[in-house]
């Protein structure tokens, strides 16, 4: 090992900008970069410093928006056609695109807690972690994936929202296996 070899680390190539084109999102563990949803952003994540000062980070260029509430990562929203990062499921890459269909999502994640159909738009709602984490897949044309939202205290956790979506299932949902 050379005297100055310690200077040649990945750290010098660390992207210090707030938005990261290579953002990873674990849809089974609910981790954005290295930060679990509901926790304070980890200092090593490119978005951490920005979210210390602002409540949102919106990157149209990379197709995502992140938000904090009370200093903790509260939600992540992804525009599939623009998202340059990667989705993971059980530590394996999950290839999702604007060609991904509703049936493909259901084959990966199972039956959703609730399906909202409004005209041709369809939203699949999945509830996790004793209904404190919500994962939504949106299909504006009714068939092809366009948006993914991952959030703490999701929309359906509020009684009024369940009523407005016409939810007829009991709340909270039964525990589900991931």
Topology:
Layout lengths: L23 E3 L4 E2 L2 E2 L11 H6 L2 E4 L4 E6 L2 E8 L6 E4 L2 E3 L7 H8 L4 E5 L2 E8 L4 E7 L7 E6 L6 H6 L14
Parallel strand pairs: 1-7
Antiparallel strand pairs: 1-2, 2-3, 4-5, 5-6, 6-12, 7-8, 9-10, 10-11, 11-12
Beta percentage is 25-35%
The end-to-end distance, rounded to whole angstroms, is: 45 Å
Spans of at least 5 consecutive residues whose pLDDT stays below 50 are 1-16
Instruction: State the helical fraction.
Output: 10-25%
Number of helices: 3
| Gross morphology | globular
State Rg. Answer: 18 Å
Structural class comes to: mainly beta
Rounded mean pLDDT score: 88
Q: How would a crystallographer describe the biggest sheet?
A: 7 strands, antiparallel
- Along the chain, the helix and strand elements come as EEEHEEEEEHEEEEH
Widest sheet: strand ordering = 4-5-6-12-11-10-9
What does this structure look like?
It is a single chain. This protein has helices at residues 48-53, 102-109, 159-164; strands at 24-26, 31-32, 35-36, 56-59, 64-69, 72-79, 86-89, 92-94, 114-118, 121-128, 133-139, 147-152. The chain starts with 23 loop residues before the first strand and ends in a 14-residue tail after the last helix. The radius of gyration is 18 Å and the shape is globular. It has a 7-stranded antiparallel beta sheet with strand order 4-5-6-12-11-10-9, covered by helices on one side. The chain is mainly β and 178 residues long. Mean pLDDT is 88; it is low at 1-16.
